[in-house]
């Protein structure tokens, strides 16, 4: 490891003094690399936790929801220090909660985060924050009074941020906002009156937004430029299940009786086409995009599973390979992009990890992994996962996508008991994960892919409970926030 360069240039300073100063700086940096409690929101009330839930990040600040007896569930922020961790705003003053128990709001848009806020006066409405108390405001009172409009998380495009909300006289419709009350407007009352068209936003095509809705006479896809005049019907369509952006278009699946149909739209009627029909069931993890292709898998309730890929054309929608059914409980459960290839796992008593380059010949098993948890964490050109064998039990492994480059990198619990490694998250050129050792419960560990570089970071639940169960890892500019229970409840670390 290179020592930090001294910022002192005084040539009279001895080499020994410089070296000692460098060691002090290095020791301080290493000390901060250890896990520490960011803030005890619930002031050490035994058996009660703040149930922190990360929202999103703005710069080096992470926003999260947390509960306390005095304020209920509200919006908090942290920069990773106790002094920089505090309540942003008590939306619903007193012990009543201003935030829901869970939220799908996870992305920052132009340095701000939109979220669902709850107040007695306005009900559930769209709020926005820049991470400061003064910059945390209700965007607009779309349904005046305590009823609330129940808005969805906005999706950003070049023409504005689109979301779905319910107006008092319109029902649920498509709205657009720039984060201000004056700039928040109903795009179109697609189904006039209080009957809702039930819009479901698929995503952006250029600066326009594609959504699925019913206008009272037809159900299908619509596209909008953010104006009523620029909102047009594209094509009739059944309910949309899964979707992803691909090559300036949107690939999606719809229900077609007892089967699923793969579709594609570029926002025009002519460009909305069937890619392939007759899928029994498409994996609920959705699509994994690698290069110009979106990969997905199918499971058929006991029949062999399949890996497919599409480039958004019918001719380019192809079966990659069929995974022979080796056991009744075997099915594909997870996928991840590893460079220009796809790494995926199958579950069950004969579970395995596979890699594919998009061809049948380039699809192969890299590791047998019975009862694996399906987790895959990619860091650079390597992926981390859990596998089990008779000699080591369930332990952490690493792969570069080849059989030769797939190996156990640490036997955390020597012997066949296994450490049950899980919750992998990329940080610091390696991964943090949860594992149990022979002397501790489930605690936070770090690994760089070598046995020497694998270590327990901290025994968070020492002398209190058997496990701290670290989870919900959230990397913010190289600092990993996570939730763990030190015996006094869940807190942010």
Please compute the radius of gyration using only Cα atoms.
26 Å
The largest sheet has its strands arranged as 1-2-3-4
- Number of helical elements: 1
Major sheet: 4 strands, antiparallel
Number of strands: 39
SS class: mainly beta
Overall geometry comes to flat
Structural write-up:
The protein is mainly beta and about 500 residues long. Helices cover about 5% and strands about 45% of the residues. The strands form ten sheets. A four-stranded antiparallel sheet has the order 1-2-3-4, with no helix packed on it. Strands 5-6-7-8 form a four-stranded antiparallel sheet, with no helix packed on it. Strands 9-10-11-12 form a four-stranded antiparallel sheet, with no helix packed on it.
């Amino acid at each position: 490891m290179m020592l930090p360069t001294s910022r002192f240039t005084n040539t009279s300073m001895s080499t020994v003094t410089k070296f000692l100063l460098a060691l002090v700086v290095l020791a301080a940096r290493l000390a901060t690399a250890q896990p520490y409690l960011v803030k005890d929101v619930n002031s050490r009330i035994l058996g009660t936790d703040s149930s922190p839930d990360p929202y999103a990040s703005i710069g080096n600040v992470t926003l999260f929801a947390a509960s306390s007896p005095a304020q209920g569930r509200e919006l908090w922020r942290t920069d990773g220090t106790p002094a920089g961790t505090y309540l942003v705003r008590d939306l619903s003053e007193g012990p009543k909660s201003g935030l829901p128990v869970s939220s799908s709001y996870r992305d920052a848009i132009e340095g701000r985060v939109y979220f669902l806020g709850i107040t007695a006066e306005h009900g559930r409405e769209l709020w926005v924050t820049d991470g400061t108390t003064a910059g945390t405001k209700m965007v607009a009172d779309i349904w005046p009074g305590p009823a609330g409009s129940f808005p969805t998380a906005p999706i950003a495009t070049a023409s504005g941020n689109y979301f779905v909300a319910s107006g008092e006289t319109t029902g649920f419709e498509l709205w657009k906002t720039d984060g201000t009350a004056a700039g928040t407007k109903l795009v179109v009352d697609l189904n006039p009156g209080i009957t809702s068209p039930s819009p479901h936003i698929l995503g952006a095509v250029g600066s326009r937004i594609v959504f699925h809705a019913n206008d009272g006479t037809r159900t299908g896809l619509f596209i909008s430029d953010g104006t009523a005049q620029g909102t047009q019907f594209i094509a009739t369509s059944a309910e949309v299940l899964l979707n992803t952006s691909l090559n300036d278009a949107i690939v999606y699946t719809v229900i077609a009786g007892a089967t699923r149909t793969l579709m594609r739209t570029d926002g025009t009627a002519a460009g909305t086409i069937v890619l392939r029909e007759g899928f029994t069931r498409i994996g609920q993890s959705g699509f994994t995009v690698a290069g110009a292709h979106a990969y997905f898998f199918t499971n058929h309730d006991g029949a062999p599973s399949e890996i497919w890929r599409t480039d958004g054309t019918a001719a380019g929608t192809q079966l990659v390979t069929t995974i022979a059914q080796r056991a009744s409980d075997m099915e594909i459960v997870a996928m991840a992009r590893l460079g220009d290839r796809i790494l995926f796992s199958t579950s069950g008593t004969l579970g395995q990890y596979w890699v594919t380059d998009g061809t049948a010949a380039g699809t192969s098993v890299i590791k047998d992994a019975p009862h694996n948890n399906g987790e895959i964490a990619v860091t650079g050109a390597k992926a981390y996962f859990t596998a089990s064998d008779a000699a080591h039990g369930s332990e952490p492994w690493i792969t570069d996508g080849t059989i030769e480059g797939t190996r156990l990198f640490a036997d955390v619990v020597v012997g066949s008991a296994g450490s049950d490694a899980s919750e992998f998250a990329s940080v610091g050129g390696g991964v943090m994960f949860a594992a149990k050792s022979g002397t501790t419960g489930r605690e936070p560990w770090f690994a760089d892919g070598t046995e020497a570089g694998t270590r327990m970071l901290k025994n968070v639940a020492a002398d209190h409970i058997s496990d701290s169960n670290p989870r919900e890892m959230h990397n913010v500019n190289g600092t990993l926030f996570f939730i763990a229970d030190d015996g006094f409840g869940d807190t942010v670390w």
